[in-house]
Amino acid sequence: MNKIVNSEKFSLGDFFFLKKMITPVFMTVIYWVTLALIAIGGLGMFFASFAGFRYSFFGGMFGLIGSIITLIIGVISTRIVFELICVLFNINRNLEKLALNKDDNTNDSSNEQTIISHDKF
């Protein structure tokens, strides 16, 4: 697993002023907890649908099929949502890298220009 946050350079100031992102670290944990809750809910609906057979066959079948569909769509939609969130964090990280590279290139070119201008005199 890739290390998203460099904990060696993380300070309390970064935490309070939102300079570094810590949410990507927790995304995997939140994803698995969400999947567990969806599985518990889907299985609960599945077993509760058997009580519907007591009143109506079609009511029980509707509950059974509905619970399976809920479970499948819940897992897929959770995956899509968390992937989109991760994409946003990856975009942010890449933009930070581009900004740092641009600053480094700007500083390097300004140093070269000052060196060249000093050589002329």
Automatic annotation (TrEMBL):
It comes from the Bacteria. It holds the Pfam family DUF4282. The chain crosses the membrane at residues 29-51, 57-89. InterPro entries: DUF4282. Keywords: Membrane, Transmembrane, Transmembrane helix. This is DUF4282 domain-containing protein. It comes from Gilliamella apicola.
